[in-house]
């Protein structure tokens, strides 16, 4: 039986290998996401290990929740006192800042998206355990306020060489700098900043730029003497520190920083694994179809094996053996393609600034996961046809008109209805009940509904297939009638093939509705709430220099400038955003109070978006506890207000409150009120002409900027869903090709009675179009339901508009016809080229 199974497999190599393509893509997603995430882990772990000293001294609250430095510092005198600590070889102070952008010779910022734009002082202090950090590879260290050192990658991308004048913008009090590049730096061991940019000045200059001239440091590195462990040195340093400062080993700090960043990037792995699951589910339909047809075609062969003494179990095992071999082949190819996918992902992220270097990381678990997923999915998909095979009696299988037994119609309908009801319940719980891990409920609900529709599709789709058959007969005569009857002949196979396309288009339709609704909600919210005439902001959503506001206020025609700042802080253990304005600006922004009085907004108080207040069971008079750089604080709620797009976070306080809390000063947005004179936009643009990371936008441009990230996300998701659609199209090709083989004698008889090659080609194409249209219709209908339900559940999150892009959905249906035509090319060509006499005598 083993030999017979393997011989049968080798005899159908092309047909079966086509089925492995679905597994290849699914496994490639799984392997690629694991490889890329492991590469991320190693890369960031290595860079942080090279970016900390043996012991790091920092102020308590010296690091904000977003990882950036705060305004808290270590005085220089404290650093000097540490030089006498037993076991300390040297002490070096560091000045660090974020938002120091290098502007290339093309007047565009180098990097900026994702990895930070770093600035600070140059130091040759060794990293922990004696590791060599950044070193000067060309030129010399910076000396004086007009010199700077850049990392090699940043200089290369910016088009700068040693001796050039470098254009730099900062979020500090000096907005634009033009120092001379005197040195290039790099890691001696070939490490990388992973896309971050670094501008290093001498210590005095860095203190003037980023610490308002204070003789202090962001943190201090203490290097251990030979034979002194990091823990021993940490304990000795801690004894010398005054209250408000802490000592931490370099190993602990490196792990802390790496874990924090990798946690923030964990969505990448989750995102890719979701699409791996989608590909595997869609591929499962293709594999079930393929094995069902192939086993049906081999029914006489299997019946003879039964007649010769093979048991039902042996027949089932022979089919599963073929599935196992295909699973191994598909997993192997998928693993290799996963490495290519990981390289592609790395290249994609490099375009957004995440510039990973070094080789890919292959952990053993990646290989194990690839083979387990590929083999299990293939064998699970092949089990049902294998089980059906064992049920065929030998005498029945020897008949010429043998067909694989179909599950009773009522059982399929009952199973489908049960799955759809279960899915609807899970979807409702995930969207509307506020259950923990709601995403898992939503995903399980969508999957159950899709499987339920696929199960009941032979019944659900019967009216459509009848209508298509009648329409074909009217439009295309006897050939159209034949195509319609062929679709009706085996509705389970037709709908199973269509179901693969249904899943891809259902998810695509859902995302189209989500994207269109989100953009419409943004447009409506801005149209209803936009105040002022212009918005000034950083294209990287980072703070910019407070100087910009002063310069804007000095422009003729600008009547008022409202500053807004955003920070991240800890609220009861969760990281949340804070917005801040000057108290008198609540009227300028036209904030409308729901409860309390916005006139009471003062230092040490907050006003809340009414939706946020309801979600968190907060009301006027309550106290909110926050952990800010200066320590724990309690702020009283004085008002709640209607949602406003110009207040970017739902908790609003005053700018002075943030300054008192020692957050790094820097504006995130400016609202300009002007007399709207002609040419004012050009004058405002001139203010930031040397600062390309800051832009001035009117209402339309502001709305377009807010829509941009939505469009980008939807495009990425459509690109990934496109792979699932490729599998679905391959399923149509595979099913039609196998169907032609199954109907070889029938095709020969049609040719014998006068059907031309062109007519035969048309018949196969019409069958393919029916399958594609059926899948598209089911997918669009389900996608509209999913999308509307999802957007309705988000109506309290500011997404109040439900917009269905009917033109785009019509395009989906039109493309499905094209998909059907293209998918039919190979099977139709095969059918048209069959030798008539040989086809007639085929068994």
From TrEMBL:
The chain crosses the membrane at residues 271-296, 319-348, 368-387, 413-434, 440-473, 494-515, 716-741, 761-794, 806-828. Coiled coil: none annotated. It is a multi-pass membrane protein. Keywords: Cell membrane, Membrane, Transmembrane, Transmembrane helix. It comes from the Bacteria. Residues 17-239, 494-657 form the MacB-like periplasmic core domain. Residues 274-394, 719-835 form the ABC3 transporter permease C-terminal domain. It is found in: Cell membrane. The keyword Metal-binding does not apply. Belongs to the ABC-4 integral membrane protein family. PANTHER family: ABC TRANSPORTER PERMEASE YTRF, MEMBRANE COMPONENT OF TRANSPORTER-RELATED. This is ABC transporter permease. It comes from Nocardioides taihuensis. The lineage of its organism: Bacteria, Bacillati, Actinomycetota, Actinomycetes, Propionibacteriales.
């Amino acid at each position: 039986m083993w030999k017979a199974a393997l011989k049968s497999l080798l005899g159908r190599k092309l047909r079966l290998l086509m089925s492995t393509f679905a597994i290849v893509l699914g496994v490639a997603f799984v392997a690629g996401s694991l490889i890329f995430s492991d590469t991320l882990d190693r890369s960031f772990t290595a860079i942080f290990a090279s970016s900390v000293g043996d012991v790091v001294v920092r102020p308590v609250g010296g690091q904000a929740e977003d990882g950036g430095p705060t305004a808290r510092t270590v005085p220089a005198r404290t650093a000097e006192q540490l030089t006498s600590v037993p076991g300390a070889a040297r002490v070096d102070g560091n000045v660090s800042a974020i938002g120091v952008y290098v502007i290339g010779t093309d007047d565009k910022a180098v990097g900026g998206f994702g990895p930070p734009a770093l600035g600070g002082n140059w130091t040759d202090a060794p990293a922990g355990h004696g590791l060599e950090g950044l070193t000067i590879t060309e030129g010399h260290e910076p000396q004086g306020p007009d010199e700077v050192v850049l990392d090699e990658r940043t200089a290369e991308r910016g088009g700068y060489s040693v001796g050039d004048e470098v254009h730099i913008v900062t979020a500090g009090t000096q907005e634009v700098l033009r120092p001379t590049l005197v040195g290039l730096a790099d890691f001696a061991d070939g490490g990388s900043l992973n896309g971050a940019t670094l501008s290093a000045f001498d210590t005095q200059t860095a203190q003037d730029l980023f610490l308002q001239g204070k003789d202090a440091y962001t943190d201090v590195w203490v290097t251990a003497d030979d034979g002194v462990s990091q823990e021993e040195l940490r304990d000795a340093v801690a004894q010398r520190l005054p209250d408000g400062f802490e000592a931490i080993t370099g190993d602990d700090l490196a792990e802390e920083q790496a874990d924090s960043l990798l946690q923030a990037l964990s969505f990448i792995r989750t995102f890719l694994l979701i699409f791996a699951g989608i590909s595997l589910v869609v591929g499962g339909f293709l594999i079930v179809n393929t094995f069902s047809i192939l086993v049906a075609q081999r029914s006489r062969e299997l019946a003879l094996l039964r007649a010769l003494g093979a048991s039902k179990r042996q027949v089932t095992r022979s089919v599963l053996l073929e599935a196992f071999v295909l699973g191994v082949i598909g997993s192997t190819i998928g693993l290799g393609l996963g490495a290519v996918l990981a390289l592609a992902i790395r290249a994609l992220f490099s375009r957004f600034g995440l510039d990973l270097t070094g080789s890919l990381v292959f952990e053993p678990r990646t290989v194990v996961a690839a083979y387990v997923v590929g083999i299990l999915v293939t064998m699970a998909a092949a089990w049902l046809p294998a089980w059906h095979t064992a049920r065929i009696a030998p005498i029945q299988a020897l008949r010429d008109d043998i067909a694989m037994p179909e599950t009773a119609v009522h059982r399929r309908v009952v199973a489908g209805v049960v799955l759809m009801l279960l899915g609807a319940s899970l979807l409702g719980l995930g969207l509307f009940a506020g259950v923990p891990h709601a995403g898992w409920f939503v995903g399980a609900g969508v999957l159950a509904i899709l499987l339920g529709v696929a199960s009941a599709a032979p019944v659900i789709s019967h009216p459509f297939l009848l209508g298509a058959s009648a329409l074909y007969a009217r439009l295309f005569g006897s050939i159209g009638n034949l195509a319609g009857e062929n679709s009706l002949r085996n509705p389970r196979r037709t709908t199973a093939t269509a179901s693969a396309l249904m899943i891809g288009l259902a998810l695509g339709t859902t995302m189209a509705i989500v994207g269109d609704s989100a953009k419409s909600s943004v447009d409506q919210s801005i149209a209803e709430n936009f105040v002022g005439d212009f918005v000034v902001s950083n294209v990287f959503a980072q703070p910019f220099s407070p100087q910009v506001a002063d310069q804007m206020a000095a422009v003729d025609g600008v009547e008022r400038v409202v500053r807004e700042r955003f920070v991240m802080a800890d609220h009861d253990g969760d990281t949340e955003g804070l917005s801040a304005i000057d108290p008198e600006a609540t009227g300028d922004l036209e904030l409308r109070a729901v409860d309390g009085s916005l006139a009471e907004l003062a230092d040490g108080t907050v006003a809340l978006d009414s939706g946020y207040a309801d979600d968190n069971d907060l009301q006027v008079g309550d106290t909110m506890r926050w952990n800010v750089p200066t320590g724990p604080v309690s702020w009283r709620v004085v008002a709640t207000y209607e949602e406003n797009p110009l207040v970017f976070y739902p908790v609003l306080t005053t700018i002075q409150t943030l300054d008192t809390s020692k957050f790094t000063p820097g504006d995130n947005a400016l609202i300009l009120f002007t007399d709207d004179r002609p040419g004012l936009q050009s004058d405002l643009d001139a203010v930031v002409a040397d600062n390309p990371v800051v832009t001035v936008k009117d209402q339309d441009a502001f709305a377009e900027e807010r829509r941009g990230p939505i469009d980008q996300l939807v495009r990425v998701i459509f690109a990934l869903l496109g792979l699932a659609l490729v599998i679905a199209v391959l399923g149509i090709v595979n099913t039609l090709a196998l169907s032609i083989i199954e109907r070889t004698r029938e095709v020969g008889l049609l040719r014998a009675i006068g059907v031309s090659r062109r007519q035969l080609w048309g018949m196969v194409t019409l069958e393919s179009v029916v399958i594609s249209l059926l899948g598209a219709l089911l997918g669009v209908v389900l996608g509209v339901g999913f999308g509307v339900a999802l957007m309705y559940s988000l109506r309290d999150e500011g997404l109040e508009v439900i917009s269905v892009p009917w033109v785009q959905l019509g395009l989906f249906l039109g493309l499905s016809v094209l998909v059907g035509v293209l998918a039919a090319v190979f099977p139709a060509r095969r059918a048209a080229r069959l030798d008539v006499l040989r086809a007639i005598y085929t068994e």
